[in-house]
Amino acid sequence: MKIVDLRGKDYTKSEELERLIRRSDMEIDQYEGSVKEILKNVKERGDEAVIEYTERFDGVKLKPDEFAVPFEEIEKAYESIEENVRKALEVSYERVRRFHEAQIEHSFFLEEDGMMLGQKVVPMERAGLYVPGGKAAYPSTVIMNAVPAVVAGVKDIIICSPNPNVYTLAAAYICGIHTVYRIGGAQAIGAMAYGTQTVQKVDKIVGPGNIYVALAKKNVYGYVDIDSIAGPSEILVIADETANPEWVAADLLSQAEHDELAASILVTTSEDIAKKVKDILYKKLLNNFSRESIARKSLDNYGHAFIVDDLNTAAEVSNYIAPEHLEIITDNPFSLLDRIKHAGAIFLGEYSTEPLGDYVLGPNHVLPTGRSARFSSPLGVYDFVKKSSVIYVSQKGFEKVEKYARDIATAEGLEAHRLSVEVRLNR
Q1: Are residues 156 and 300 in the same domain?
Q2: Tens of pLDDT, residues 294-314
Q3: With 75 labelled, which of 7, 173, 196, 246 sits at a CA distance of 20 to 30 A?
Q4: Where does substrate bind (predicted)?
């Protein structure tokens, strides 16, 4: 972890800061061709291509009738997991559902003399969730991706996950999802985007994955909607001299253990805090840590502590980075809230540790990465609905606005637009 003193300096010219921002630029050239070939084959050959790539990449030979996990197996997984984990997942589901129910949007209509104008909100018909599988267990990914779709009223929700384990299946059961396909990678994205003889085409694909999955989502966008092209995880902690350095260090480590490209960033007004956090990470927390290799590479390459003049500057640096996760651990964290413009999720106060948000608080943990918090939002119910404008105009309403429409059509040189209005003038 590198300590960088930005006091009295222009942070926008910091090479270390720019290196952090650029770290999520994908090296796509070496993968793009392979991904496009996989998608092309799945689109043209369907199940046959999915079977071929699943055997090649995952070492599993499937028949089409073996794609789907039998519902009895999903139900058995729910019953077989440890009671305390089952309870934790149920609590998570209920809390996440309650939060997302507050996001429900309703159709509306505005009436004026001679017109009725409105917006009709309807859920998408079918959604596909991608969940990493194999040795990894990500039941929280199932819950965070499924609940917004469930609350939105999506009729059919499917999951694709290579070799899904019992926790993934148990979470699917809790969310009321009965269809889980044991396929993964770019071939699974292609199957959900184009449809195969066995896998139905969906309207939207959400969920994290490796670079093959991310590039596949990018390439099928337009055939289907997607949530985002997720980059490596990141956390930024704003801390003053009142922060507990061990707590800050633990929170930074919680992101470093995700990925060698994950960024753990401290922005502080205290040089003492910066030094203590670094010492605790390297001399205490990394010792005998089960994911030490991953976390150490992450911290060595993308772990930074930036020392700034004041908390207002800290907020500016944070906005410049636009982090996925932002923790504010200061004497009065709420005083900075109005100054934060770009962040996926904002955690206020020393007890609001980011891992709570990953699992049980309620807000979604699917968040914009790689500075995309400047223009995008957490996954939500609004991602699984469509909106249609509804327009009714009576003769009286027509007479109120027809002249303006004709004048604009004339200015744009669109003769038929003007004609469509004029033919109604002399009924």
Answers
A1: no
A2: 999 999 999 999 999 999 999
A3: 196
A4: 233, 255, 258, 325, 358, 412, 417
